[in-house]
Design brief:
Elements (H helix, E strand, L loop, with lengths): L2 E4 L9 E4 L5 E4 L6 H16 L6 E5 L4 E4 L15 E3 L3 E2 L1 E4 L3 E7 L9 H18 L5 E3 L2 E8 L8 E13 L2 E9 L19 E2 L11 H16 L1
Parallel strand pairs: 1-7, 3-4, 5-6, 12-14
Antiparallel strand pairs: 1-12, 2-3, 4-9, 5-8, 9-13, 10-11, 11-12, 12-13
């Protein structure tokens, strides 16, 4: 199956659960989740969905500071291993996850939606664009560049540039999706300096906080939920 890229069991004791009208389960973890545990739980849920024993789920969480490498990652793009590095089955290259970044893992059954990988990736991008619009930010696609980008206009101290504000990475197994999207809310942007994010050089990384948007994780979660319902129904 094609792959496209980005880019505990000691979870909180009782993660909150929300249900959308279409019965997609929304799970929110209030404390950082160790990446190996998140991956194991995500894969178990995707298997259960494929076998018809569980429903779809969107899982909103943060990770401790880590780098993850997709199936297309090259060693030259790991500049400095400041944090643990995890090789993962998603498509794409290196990306960073850490506190202040909202990760949304999407475990959706494309058999009952639309079994079209390109359309799914396009919808993930549009989900991020719709979410950002609700928060007052114009996110855009760029040909040949993975993720969602923000145009930064010229000022007295800098020329115009484009910075990446959100990443996506996808794996699809038995037509059930794994991994998802990551939106920079207020992470430490210097943590991205240890990698070439998604293998793209010559462009920066930004966040809502860096853009002057004071949004809480709860604000972002509500925007993600509304955006999801608009794009995925």
């Amino acid at each position: 199956m094609p792959e496209h890229g980005f880019g505990k069991l000691n979870l909180d004791a009782a993660p909150s659960i929300l249900k959308a009208q279409n019965q997609v389960e929304w799970r929110i973890s209030d404390h950082p989740v160790a990446y190996p545990d998140a991956l194991a739980q995500m894969e178990a849920r995707a298997t259960a969905i494929a076998e018809g024993t569980a429903g779809e789920q969107i899982w909103l969480l943060e990770h401790p500071p880590i780098y993850t490498a997709g199936t297309s990652a090259t060693d030259a793009d790991l500049i400095e291993a400041r944090f643990p590095v995890f090789r993962t089955g998603r498509g794409g290259q290196f990306t960073y996850h850490g506190p202040g970044q909202r990760v949304a893992y999407a475990m959706l059954d494309l058999r009952t939606r639309k079994p079209d990988v390109r359309a799914y990736v396009h919808d993930l991008e549009q989900w991020l664009i719709e979410t950002l619009a609700q928060l007052g930010v114009k996110g855009e696609r760029r040909a040949g560049r993975v993720g969602i980008w923000v145009h930064r206009g010229p000022s007295s101290t800098s020329n115009a540039r484009e910075d990446k504000i959100a990443a996506l990475g996808v794996r699809i197994r038995r037509w059930v999706t794994l991994h998802g999207v990551a939106l920079n809310v207020a992470p430490d942007l210097s943590h991205f300096d240890g990698i070439v994010p998604c293998g793209i050089r010559g462009h920066g990384v930004t966040s809502l906080a860096d853009l002057g948007i004071r949004a809480t994780m709860a604000d972002v979660d509500m925007a993600l939920k509304r955006g999801f319902q608009k794009i995925f129904g």
